[in-house]
Write a structure and sequence with these properties.
heterodimer, A: 422 residues, alpha/beta, D-Maltodextrin-Binding Protein, domain 2, 2 domains, 18 helices, B: 308 residues, mainly alpha, MetI-like fold, 72% helix, cell membrane (chain B), MetI-like (chain B)
Chain lengths: 422, 308
């Protein structure tokens, strides 16, 4: 008996201590920090540490020379980190107060990180919101305060096999939901495709293909009062429309991994929705010039999804002013255009699209047009979880006999019970 | 009342010696004790404490500024349909996987122990190889094998005229597919342990049984199995513990899908941590921990030697 009492007592004590110490949350609720303090004039000095993920992290050094030429007193140290685990690494850094000065932040993480209080509000004297695509700028705004700058963007369009479309007699991109359905049906019936389209059948990230239809129908994720709006008639009708592609056997529901691109190239799949990275993937498959892209069809609007990466400066940054100056440099139209030429990231700054390299390419121009009508999910701390639940329900919607109304109701209940995370 | 001064000095001397011994002892164990306290016991206690709070990832800068919510998180665990689904999947994985793996492991061990003498080492290495191979590599290869159109499994089925299903994308087949893969992967470990157990059975027991006219089947039933009891207990406990925490298989191969049919409890906990629900995820981990302890105790009870 004696052997047991001590650990149990210690455990009880620890719990009790915590209960006492945890005297509860401050009752501030949603706070609006207001814009960040102004950044000093003059060139940047000192070392600026930046973390960036993926290809951005590997190639960012290419832009550093241009910055240090104007700011000879500054050095920029880029640390590439892998996307896997980047979220945890940043959140650990914020918890420990050992952050870099700047980091690339996935757009859907902004809500969560801003709420930790670890991000520095964007200074108004350096960054002008109107320079950026509005949907992209929205990803930085949490509770009315902006905590970063959109660095690059991506949006979703329809990729269409030209050969199949021609055989189906589809000469112009469909402009309405009815035309889209008719075009896809024709590609399957007359164009020789096994599937007119491949829409994502639920699973991770499918909300990015589904929510555009909700937005196109005038629906929203949240109402103005902050409550969720998954069960509105607009959203339900959009889900119904999405599901109809599966019930009418126009889209496969269980395409094996890695089959999309080969089947698209072979003309077995007529079209699919994806972002700009597929330009590169299709080029690798030797399919350049044999496909076209369509902007989203218009119902009430022709909205698509906008994602990408934001740059944020941390409150614990050792070189805050230098960090913001570097961010502002990366947002210069000419630097954004250079960056596009370096790794193909689409510029978040509107005027950068005037660059000949972007303007001349009709494929890219379509993305540029779409970005003017593209939305991002709300910057709430729980968005990742709500989105994952939504993806689960999407899978049920397309694979089982669940109706759109049932799905909308479940999505609404799920989101409401998860909440917005304060 | 007449305490002699020598006595006091003696006592003081003894106390000093005891103190010195204690200091020396603690000095020797301190490398482990400190590491254990800081990196094991500390975090474990903190996560336990965390499970009684509403801590989320947004609280990392101010971890004490959270609310104490008592058993709310635990109550929420049992009302979470996904957790219940994941528990069902995990239970299936354990209930089917553990007996399957043990039967396969024992069968291979028996084969290697008696019949095969020529290529014993080759077989032993062959069966053990999956155990030491990275689970991620194994999963990726199996994903290729199980591909519906181009996979080897359906290719073989096609030879005998069977149109193979889409194994990993069928709600009813995905979890069994993972169980079979796990059994294949883990039977090597069990084989080694069972082989050791079999070789520890004295040969004279079999000799006596044969003299009494016992058939091979009777020998297995009445000599081998009872003598293997402790080995089986060990194997059962180890396998149950690892299967209760199955994670990588579904993480790499199916991401928990389709329709959450391969979502395990560990995977669900992992996802909740990812969503930043630290309090909730900790509570769920402790529920899993209690289940592991309970099942292990159950095994001890079931396979306890009768004479003890």
């Amino acid at each position: 008996m004696r052997g047991w009492t001590r650990p149990v007592a210690a455990l009880g004590l620890a719990t009790a201590l915590l209960a006492v110490a945890a005297c509860g949350r401050d009752a501030e609720g949603a706070q609006d920090e207001g814009p960040g303090t102004a950044v000093s004039d003059g060139p940047a000095t000192g070392e600026i540490n930046i973390w960036a993920m993926g290809a951005e992290g590997e190639k960012l050094s290419a832009l550093v020379d241009g910055f240090t030429k104007d700011n000879p007193g500054a050095t920029v140290k880029v640390t590439p980190i892998p996307w896997d685990g980047a979220h945890d690494k940043i959140s650990t850094a914020i918890a420990g107060g050992e952050t870099p000065d700047v980091a690339l932040i996935g757009t859907t993480w902004m809500g969560e990180f801003a709420r930790t209080g670890g991000l520095d509000p964007t200074p108004e004297n350096l960054i002008k919101p109107a320079d950026f695509y509005p949907g992209a700028w929205d990803t930085t705004v949490v509770n009315g305060t902006s905590y970063g700058v959109p660095w690059y963007v991506e949006t979703r369009l329809f990729y269409v096999n030209s050969d199949v479309a021609r055989k189906a007699g589809v000469d112009t991109p469909p402009s309405s939901w009815e035309e889209l359905k008719a075009a896809i049906t024709a590609m399957q019936d007359k164009g020789g495709a096994d599937w007119g389209v491949s829409l994502q059948p639920g699973k991770t990230g499918s909300w990015q293909s589904v929510l555009p239809f909700v937005w196109q129908n005038g629906g929203a994720i949240q109402r103005d009062d902050g409550s969720f709006a998954f069960d509105t008639p607009e959203a339900t009708a959009a889900l119904e429309y999405y599901k109809s592609f599966f019930t009418e056997k126009l889209s496969p529901a269980d395409l094996p991994q890695g089959a999309l691109e080969p089947d698209f190239v072979k003309g077995k799949i007529g079209s699919f929705i994806s972002g700009p990275w597929h330009i590169g993937i299709l080029k690798e498959q030797g399919f350049e010039g044999k496909y076209e892209v369509w902007n989203m069809p218009t119902k009430v609007s022709g909205t698509s999804f906008v994602g990408g990466g934001d740059l944020a400066v941390f409150k614990d940054a050792k070189n805050r002013d230098g960090a913001w100056k570097f961010v502002s440099y990366l947002s210069r139209p000419d630097v954004q255009a250079t960056w596009f030429q370096t790794i193909g990231d689409l510029p978040a700054v509107k005027s950068a699209w005037e660059d000949p390299a972007l303007k001349a390419d009709p494929m890219l121009a379509a993305f540029g047009t779409q970005l003017n009508d593209a939305k991002s999910p709300p910057t709430i701390a729980t968005w990742d979880q709500i989105a994952a639940g939504f993806d689960d329900l999407m899978e049920q919607l397309v694979k089982t006999d669940m109706t759109a109304a049932e799905m909308a109701k479940s999505a609404q209940e799920q989101a409401t019970s998860i909440g917005t995370g304060g | 009342m007449t305490a002699r001064p020598q006595d006091a000095a003696l006592r003081r001397g003894r106390r000093a010696a005891r103190l010195r011994r204690a200091v020396t002892g603690w000095g020797f164990v301190s490398p482990f004790t400190i590491l254990f306290a800081v990196f094991m016991a500390g975090p474990v206690l903190i996560s336990l404490a965390m499970s009684f709070t509403d801590m989320r990832s947004a609280d990392v800068r101010d971890p004490l500024g959270v609310n104490f919510v008592g058993l709310d998180q635990y109550a929420k665990v049992f009302g979470d349909p996904l957790f219940l689904k994941a528990s069902g999947n995990t239970a299936f994985f354990v209930l089917v996987g553990v007996p399957l793996t043990m039967a396969a492991g024992l069968a291979v061990a028996l084969g290697l122990n008696s019949g095969l003498t020529r290529f014993k080492t080759v077989f032993r290495v062959g069966y053990y190889l999956p155990v030491v191979t990275s689970i991620v590599a194994v999963s990726v290869v199996w994903r290729f094998l199980l591909q519906p159109d181009t996979g080897l499994v359906n290719g073989l089925l096609g030879l005998v005229g069977v149109d193979g299903p889409n194994w990993l994308d069928d709600e009813n087949l995905s979890l069994p597919s993972l169980v079979v893969m796990a059994a294949w992967r883990n039977l090597g470990f069990q084989m080694v342990i069972f082989l050791a157990g079999l070789q520890a059975i004295p040969a004279n027991l079999y000799e006596a049984a044969r003299l009494d006219g016992a058939s091979r089947r009777q020998q297995f039933r009445h000599v081998t199995l009872p003598m293997l009891r402790p080995t089986m207990l060990f194997v059962a406990v180890i396998t149950t513990i690892s299967y209760l925490q199955f994670f990588e298989e579904s993480y790499v191969m199916t991401q928990g899908g389709p329709l959450n049919s391969t979502l395990s409890v560990s995977f669900h906990v992992f996802k909740q941590f990812g969503f930043g629900n630290y309090g909730y995820a900790s509570a769920m981990s402790y529920v899993l921990f209690v289940a592991i302890v309970a099942l292990s105790l159950l095994w001890f009870r079931l396979l306890k030697r009768k004479d003890q």
